[in-house]
């Protein structure tokens, strides 16, 4: 039996609908949105005494159900199909004496002006607005004009729709420009009984007298899970909000039917602010043998630890899901702008939403466990937040790591999943002779002076490797008597601080383009300048070019630096290399770097490049400039540390390299000077390869 039209245009044909309803018979046809789902929205606005017009009524039971539950009785139903009108007159008949069915075209209605308080359209606009051809749009304009004419001021036009973009835009633009208030409700789904994957929406458009001039548009969206509407500033934002909900519904439908081959991520946003509150990753583990108790689990990542390899990378999350032993694991990252009421509060907030992401085959009424590290949600305290003209918005925050250790981090919010700088905090100790007050439960004041920075500890593995590379310096002594080091990129200052403190004769020059970073490093990361440590606020490209030019003009000036270290990030996130900026690895500039480097010196570069072709190009350029090139990959990270030497006579024997590293570490480890026992220089160079 052919019930669907040969072309979308037939949806507007009376002949098509007569044939449709004759073939279908008496069975009610509901396009979408059954009464139980629509009722909560309708009962908010429809009053028992309202006079209601249903346009394009078909043989839907909606009017009958509204009548039967006492929502309203004065209902007029119209349709262009004579067959369906006769069917419905016979079906309702004497059962509903105050309700009528009339054969009428809604594009040219016989009713007087301002005759109804409610106009209800269930799928009719969707059926007519099948394309954006001029004739179709003209028909829709006529439909809207007639609805506006027969509706009283203060009355409401309800449009039940799947909210295709062109349909939603047309309706919202038309009525908002007429001065009407537009509110879009998402209708709660009906679970397994829902015929459509896409969610159903109801546009509630309230008629107001049009005010001359440019009156502000009132546009709102009311998601299914909340009663309070959210105001949006434009038609585009309203359409985008609806699209987000449609994409989410499609995602949930897909995840409920088949395992996901690739990890799926999505943000759940705060209802009030619209800002992301949770970031979810759905990870399926095909290798896990399913049983009743291991289908599905939720893992709450402790605050501040979302950037760690285990939680912040696809491979890490895959390993986490496998080790947890669940077929599907949803990891949940918490955002720094949000406040959370502990694990129980998060569980209560997420329980309903995460069940929409459940895998196929989950047993009914199965309890889904919420997991975490140590059973808590971690600690994150934002110490400072500001905006730099060069680096954008950034935060300094203290987070709790494993055990009792706390760390201070600098994060640029343009790339919030990357920790720009990190330092370990020293535990506070009470003053000598001060008695501990058991009853003092005063919470720490975020404005109090920051805890002391543990300058002996390098948090970043790439910084450890960069320092270990100094054993490549030539000469009989592990630590040259007068070591001149240039560091481009300050960040929190951990790298230059360590070199300054542990190489007691070193003179360190730091180049930083952003003056805000010097302030951050000084105030929050324990950085300070002195006779052996100076910061130059300058573009690293200009600073190196100037030094190279001076050496060329005044040939009596020798090469200046024993070591040059580049640890500078790129602000251009469209390039496949986030460190350094591409200009820092172009051949003319690298030749300038070589000019200001001593012949037996070492140039150390932190390279973060996800583009394999671009990375190979960078390595080829480096090999053209520096005869000897070593590489050290950082396990679990994209970082690769490159050690470049201007002379081919450098150390190429792994055993000798290890001996040099041990000798350097021995020289740096002095009595009374703290040293991180896990930091073994020889280990940092064990995996170095010569390119």
TrEMBL record:
Keywords from the named record: Methyltransferase, Multifunctional enzyme, Transferase
Composition skew (Basic residues), residue ranges: 434-444
SUPFAM superfamilies noted in UniProt: S-adenosyl-L-methionine-dependent methyltransferases
Membrane-spanning intervals of the chain: none
A GO CC annotation given for this chain: cytoplasm
Entry's Gene Ontology molecular function annotations: methyltransferase activity
Family matches, as InterPro entries: Lys/N-term_MeTrsfase_sf, Methyltranfer_dom, SAM-dependent_MTases_sf
Domain Methyltransferase: 50-165
Tagged with keyword Amino-acid biosynthesis: no
Superkingdom of source: Eukaryota
A single BP term in Gene Ontology: methylation
Annotated Pfam families: Methyltransf_31 (PF13847), Spermine_synth (PF01564)
Transport found in the keyword field: no
Sequence segments annotated as region (Disordered): 429-450
Matches recorded under PANTHER family: EEF1A LYSINE AND N-TERMINAL METHYLTRANSFERASE, SAM-DEPENDENT METHYLTRANSFERASE SUPERFAMILY PROTEIN
UniProt similarity note: Belongs to the methyltransferase superfamily.
Protein name in UniProt: eEF1A lysine and N-terminal methyltransferase
Organism: Eudyptes filholi (Southern rockhopper penguin)
């Amino acid at each position: 039996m052919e019930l669907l039209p040969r072309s979308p245009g037939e949806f507007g044909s009376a002949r098509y609908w007569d044939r449709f309803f004759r073939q279908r018979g008496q069975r009610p046809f509901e396009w979408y949105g059954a009464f139980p789902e629509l009722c909560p929205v309708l009962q908010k606005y429809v009053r028992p005494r309202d006079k209601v017009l249903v346009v394009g009524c078909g043989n839907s039971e909606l009017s009958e159900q509204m009548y039967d539950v006492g929502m309203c009785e004065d209902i007029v139903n119209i349709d262009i199909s004579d067959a369906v009108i006769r069917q419905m007159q016979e079906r309702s008949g004497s059962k509903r004496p105050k309700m009528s069915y009339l054969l009428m075209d809604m594009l040219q209605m016989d009713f007087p002006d301002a005759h109804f308080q409610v106009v209800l359209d269930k799928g009719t606009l969707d059926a007519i607005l099948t394309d954006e051809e001029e004739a179709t749009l003209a028909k829709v304009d006529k439909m809207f004009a007639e609805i506006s004419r027969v509706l009283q001021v203060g009355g409401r036009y309800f449009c039940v729709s799947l909210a295709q973009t062109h349909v939603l835009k047309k309706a919202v633009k038309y009525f908002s420009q007429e001065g009407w208030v537009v509110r879009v409700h998402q209708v709660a789904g009906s679970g397994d009984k829902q015929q459509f994957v896409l969610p159903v929406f109801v546009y509630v458009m309230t008629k107001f007298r049009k005010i001359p001039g440019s009156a502000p548009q009132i546009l709102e969206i009311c998601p299914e899970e909340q009663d309070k509407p959210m105001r949006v500033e434009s038609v585009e934002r309203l359409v985008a909000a609806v699209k987000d909900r449609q994409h989410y519904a499609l995602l949930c439908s897909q995840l409920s039917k088949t395992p996901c081959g690739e990890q799926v991520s999505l943000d759940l946003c705060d209802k009030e602010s619209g800002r992301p509150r949770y970031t979810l990753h759905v990870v399926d583990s095909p290798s896990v043998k399913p049983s009743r108790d291991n289908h599905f689990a939720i893992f709450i990542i402790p605050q501040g630890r979302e950037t760690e390899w285990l939680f912040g990378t696809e491979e890490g999350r895959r390993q986490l899901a496998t080790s947890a032993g669940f077929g599907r694991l949803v990891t949940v990252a918490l955002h720094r702008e949000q406040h959370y009421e502990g694990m129980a509060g998060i569980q209560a907030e997420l329980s309903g939403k995460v069940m929409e992401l459940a895998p196929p085959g989950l047993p009914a009424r199965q309890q889904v466990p919420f997991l975490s590290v140590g059973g808590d949600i971690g600690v994150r305290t934002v110490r400072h937040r500001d905006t730099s003209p060069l680096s954008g918005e950034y935060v300094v925050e203290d987070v709790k790591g494993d055990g009792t250790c706390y760390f201070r981090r600098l994060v640029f919010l343009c790339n919030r999943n990357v920790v720009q700088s990190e330092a370990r905090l020293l535990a506070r100790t009470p003053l000598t002779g001060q008695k501990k007050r058991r009853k003092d439960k005063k919470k720490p004041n975020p404005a109090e002076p920051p805890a002391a920075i543990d300058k002996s500890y390098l948090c970043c593995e790439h910084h450890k490797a960069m320092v270990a590379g100094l054993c490549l310096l030539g000469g009989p002594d592990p630590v040259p008597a007068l070591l001149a080091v240039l560091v481009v990129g300050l960040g929190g200052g951990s790298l230059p601080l360590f070199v300054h403190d542990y190489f007691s004769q070193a003179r360190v020059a730091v180049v930083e383009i952003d003056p805000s970073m010097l302030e951050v490093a000084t105030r929050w990361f324990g950085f300070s300048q002195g006779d052996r440590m100076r910061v130059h606020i300058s573009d690293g490209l200009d600073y190196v070019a100037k030094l190279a030019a001076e050496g060329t003009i005044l040939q009596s000036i020798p090469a200046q630096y024993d070591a040059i270290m580049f640890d500078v990030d790129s602000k251009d996130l469209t390039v496949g290399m986030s460190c350094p900026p591409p200009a820092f690895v172009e051949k003319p500039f690298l030749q300038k770097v070589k000019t200001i480097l001593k012949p037996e010196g070492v140039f150390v570069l932190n390279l973060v490049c996800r583009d394999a072709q671009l990375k190979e190009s960078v390595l080829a350029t480096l090999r053209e400039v520096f005869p000897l090139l070593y590489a050290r990959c950082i396990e679990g990270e994209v970082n690769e540390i490159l050690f470049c030497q201007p002379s081919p006579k450098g150390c190429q024997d792994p055993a000798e390299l290890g001996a040099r590293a041990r000798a350097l570490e021995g020289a740096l480890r002095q009595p009374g000077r703290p040293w991180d026992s896990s930091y073994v220089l020889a280990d940092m160079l064990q995996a170095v390869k010569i390119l």
